[in-house]
Amino acid sequence: MTPWLGLVVLLGSWSLGDWGAEACTCSPSHPQDAFCNSDIVIRAKVVGKKLVKEGPFGTLVYTIKQMKMYRGFTKMPHVQYIHTEASESLCGLKLEVNKYQYLLTGRVYDGKMYTGLCNFVERWDQLTLSQRKGLNYRYHLGCNCKIKSCYYLPCFVTSKNECLWTDMLSNFGYPGYQSKHYACIRQKGGYCSWYRGWAPPDKSIINATDP
After folding, report:
1. End-to-end CA distance of the chain
2. Which of 41, 78, 104, 177 has its CA 20 to 30 A from that of 15?
3. How far is CA 76 from the centre of its chain?
4. Are 167 and 123 in contact (CB under 8 A)?
5. Is 98 left (phi over 0), alpha (psi -120 to 50) or beta?
6. 36 is in an annotated binding site
7. Is the dihedral of CA 135, 121, 8, 115 positive or negative?
8. What is the pLDDT of residues 74-111, one digit of tens each?
9. Would the pTM count as exceeding 0.70?
10. φ, ψ of residue 51 in degrees (nearest 5)
11. Which domains does the chain have, with CATH numbers?
């Protein structure tokens, strides 16, 4: 069994597999949390894959061409291979070769990057403009904030560093509007709040508490 499997539920986030395959259970996570809790965050294109005999069902090793790194400069400044379980029931990730660019997040163990269905993995062309800006600088600004999930009402924040995440209450399902368009950023006075602006955060408007 590869090392990340024991952490799969605790570190889970939304991904290409949505809620994953049968027997793969992922806890929802806002993209900002996925960013802040990952060792590696990169944009890359898959250029090859092979199956190796590791773990109960083998391990898929994808060869990638790294386009840009957003997080992980000290862990692994250049990623050439990513590892995932071969079985989707163990949260293994299936990626297209020589077709799309992907946003990939994962953890580093023994000098190797591991990812899976419970990590934040998405086709680059499917990300919103706000998510791309979040990857570049906004998410990093909010790594000291806490995004608190709300599954049913009433929900309340209990400390000044929390933002209330209510996507799961929406009729539009999950991931929702806050996942796609908002970042939780610390503001003046030490309070964290949602930020949606199209320009870099401004002290005069970042005090807003929407959505």
Report:
1. 41
2. 78
3. 18
4. no
5. left
6. no
7. negative
8. 999 999 999 999 988 899 999 999 999 999 999 999 99
9. yes
10. -100, 125
11. 25-126 (2.40.50.120), 127-199 (3.90.370.10)
